[in-house]
Write a structure and sequence with these properties.
Arc Repressor Mutant, subunit A; DNA-binding; about 240 residues; four-stranded antiparallel sheet; alpha+beta; homodimer; Jelly Rolls
Chain lengths: ~240, ~240
DNA sequence: CGCCTTATTGAAACCCCTCAAATTCAGTGG
DNA sequence: CCACTGAATTTGAGGGGTTTCAATAAGGCG
């Protein structure tokens, strides 16, 4: 909490979760939160843990992954600042369905589940904001589900790169750098393919001048071309 | 509304969306709803329509589909009685991202978007209930996304059949009849494959005595066997 | 009966996965 | 500074699950 002392509302106000709440309200809400910082590559919680805390990411990136029964891992999504996560588990009182790992140095606000429920009853706008956030997420999963069901691998990889670029892209003069450590394996787990296929695809794109990729790093050189691949009608 | 006159709360009380609300509250909530019945195979709204109404299904089945850019259709899910739909669009003030079609004779409660938002502010429990519903749906899409990404077609078809059986199954002495018109194409659109593969798979299962399928109809004869396929570890 | 939709089945093509081996790269410690 | 090590990556060959295309069969309905 120390870090929030003084002007907590400055931290909260710009976050989607707190839209349309007065500074007074935010003060009370903030006073019930726990603030903490984490190093990179730290587990926040594991799939299967009892869900106790509602989390809002203030700074950094968090990766949400899921383990399949036979041990395969998939990456569900990367959480960006201002987004809430672990919403599902807290509301349903079920174990966390995902594992959360920090990608960066991360700054986090958390509330105990019951505290958050009481807050939502007192400030319905909080619940409505959460609804909007979840609604957007459903949208996203519907889209990805459709992609997965109807589209070829190359296209899905293109889409994944563009999505990452829009979330964590850093503009360079050469192109757009995706500013997190990103292995071929990571990309494979996001697109439901294998690291081999990802590697082959990136190699081809590198030959064509669409991207430049090093170890754990991808730079998009020709975004427009990638969009063409991502949207191409001729399958 | 006429049909709700007298005892509206009897209609609403068992619906998840209205949990933990008093009969008084339900009376007011019900008084702002519009009730309507629809025939089978009727469009409730189309993908792209301006979203104006929040819907709760009281009776029957509704199918939610999505059209891809290149004209392919996929079935996102079947809505069962007591479930809300079109939640996403109303909250985000965006066009409906899906098309809703009645499968059966359907009975529906709807609210105008702004009315529902005001209700949620007055009765936060409504928003919290919606959160639970959406949370469950995100769960489901995450699971299906993972299935789609990591599992073979046969398994996905088995899962789809089991899911349908639990939602709309009717117990016969021969087995479980899936009690809606269901073409091979429908199953293909639910599992992200082609009607040919579905047909081949069902033929094989029919030979093995797992299912019995006629035109637009499937009966599960050996549910346990299907579960084995759906859960089989050896990929 | 004729028509249209739904379903079946075969053959060929193909995308992608799997497995194996080699290569590059970053970090570590001698 | 450089060998050593383990991880990340690349690339090839082969196989298999699915799709695609085409043709035929079977059902329902006017």
């Amino acid at each position: 909490m120390a870090i929030l002392a003084g002007n907590p509302t400055h931290l909260l106000a710009p976050i989607g979760f707190f839209h349309q709440l007065s500074f007074q309200d935010l003060d009370e809400i903030a006073s019930t939160a726990t603030h903490r910082e984490y190093d990179k590559n730290t587990y926040l919680f594991h799939q299967g843990d009892q869900a106790r805390r509602f989390c809002v990411l203030v700074k950094g990136k968090v990766k949400l992954t899921q383990l399949t029964e036979d041990g395969q891992q998939i990456i569900l999504r990367y959480v960006s600042p201002g987004e809430a996560f672990a919403v599902v588990a807290v509301l349903s009182k079920i174990p966390y369905p995902v594992t959360a790992t920090t990608v960066n140095q991360v700054s986090l606000l958390t509330w105990e589940d019951q505290v958050m429920l009481d807050l939502m009853k007192k400030y319905p706008q909080l619940a409505i904001n959460s609804l909007r956030i979840l609604a957007g997420r459903i949208q996203e999963f519907q889209d990805r589900f459709r992609e997965q069901a109807t589209e070829r691998v190359e296209r899905r990889i293109a889409r994944a790169l563009l999505r990452l670029a829009s979330q964590t892209g850093r503009k360079l003069d050469r192109g757009i750098l995706i500013d997190i450590a990103l292995t071929r394996q990571d990309l494979a787990e996001m697109t439901g393919t294998t690291l081999y296929t990802v590697s082959r695809t990136l190699s081809q794109w590198e030959k064509d001048g669409l991207v430049s990729s090093q170890r754990e790093q991808v730079t998009i050189l020709a975004p427009h071309q990638l969009v063409v691949i991502a949207e191409d009608m001729s399958k």
